[in-house]
């Protein structure tokens, strides 16, 4: 039976009062961001079901993942995965794959990064000032599957941060779905469940659909929450420059909160360090994705280990039907 990685894909507590004053404003921004549900949701499901369902998952076409529930074939479509995580795709959105590396590097330098980041693999969050290091750590703990491994995996993670930082119309679901699907092959290399928090929600919906009784004696899946008491901020005295929060991000979060919000007042009292170079437009050099009414999925070349023999679907989960 596969196990859940204990220190990855943690649930994030978005109670800003639990955090250092330097990062409270960013916690508020996360609370009203497109990623809110993705970093806070999970379901208690029997580990035996989660393990078996995940081990049968096949990601062969980019818009669908097939898996089995008690030997019954079912699947989840990308649009329904979006709904599960409350990820809304703008009608006109930025293609995540079109964001250049130089754009991400400039973003980190605007935050106050002091180290070498000529390649994504060179990035070290210890070179970020406390506020941005804290944000990076939170997202890393929630989406750590995206950072471990190749430079391309790191790029996906940095793209998420870029979408939040610049408050652009990024297709966050596209980034998360791609990594979620590719994670299905991890069980062939490592006896651990990849993206267990997301899979717990998928499996829970499937068990409800097939009316599988919950056995009390089963070992339940435990998705841990990040312990805010152990969340340590870096010493601000070690940094000469603190990149401020972009106005576009503050404005996007501010209208969703009361104007007299104490956290915004506290942030305005924090002195600025140096000058921050703003881009003229966050869309420079990026491609815009237009939502197609009838998208045609592109088949991906399956790994020889993942050769999939087609079977007649005996039942389709509501995740497919919507």
From TrEMBL:
Protein source organism: Lactuca saligna
Region (Disordered): 285-305
Name under which the protein is recorded: Uncharacterized protein
Domain of life: Eukaryota
């Amino acid at each position: 039976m596969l196990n859940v990685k204990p220190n990855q894909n943690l649930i994030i507590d978005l109670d800003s009062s639990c955090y250092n004053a330097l990062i409270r404003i960013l916690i508020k921004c996360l609370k009203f961001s497109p990623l809110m549900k993705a970093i806070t949701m999970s379901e208690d499901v029997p580990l035996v079901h989660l393990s078996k369902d995940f081990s049968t998952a096949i990601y062969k076409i980019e818009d669908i993942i097939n898996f089995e529930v008690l030997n019954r074939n079912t699947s989840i479509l990308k649009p329904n995965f979006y709904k599960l995580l409350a990820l809304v795709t703008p009608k006109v959105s930025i293609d995540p794959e079109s964001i250049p590396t130089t754009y991400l590097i400039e973003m980190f330098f605007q935050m106050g990064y002091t180290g070498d980041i000529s390649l994504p693999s060179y990035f070290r969050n210890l070179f970020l000032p406390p506020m941005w290091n804290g944000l990076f750590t939170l997202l890393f703990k929630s989406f750590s599957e995206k950072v471990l491994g190749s430079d391309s995996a790191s790029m996906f993670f940095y793209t998420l941060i870029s979408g939040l930082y610049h408050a652009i119309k990024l297709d966050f679901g596209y980034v998360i779905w791609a990594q979620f699907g590719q994670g299905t092959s991890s069980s062939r290399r490592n006896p651990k469940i990849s993206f267990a928090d997301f899979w717990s929600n998928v499996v829970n919906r499937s068990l409800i659909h097939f009316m599988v009784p919950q056995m009390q004696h089963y070992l339940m899946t435990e998705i841990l929450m990040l312990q805010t008491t152990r969340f340590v901020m870096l010493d601000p005295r070690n940094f000469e420059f603190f990149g401020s929060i972009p106005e576009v991000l503050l404005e996007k979060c501010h209208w969703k909160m009361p104007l007299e919000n104490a956290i915004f007042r506290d942030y305005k009292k924090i002195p600025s360090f140096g000058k921050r170079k703003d881009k003229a437009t966050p869309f420079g050099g990026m491609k815009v994705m237009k939502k197609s009414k009838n998208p045609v999925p592109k088949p991906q070349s399956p790994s020889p280990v993942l050769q999939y023999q087609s079977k007649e679907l005996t039942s389709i989960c509501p995740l497919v039907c919507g």
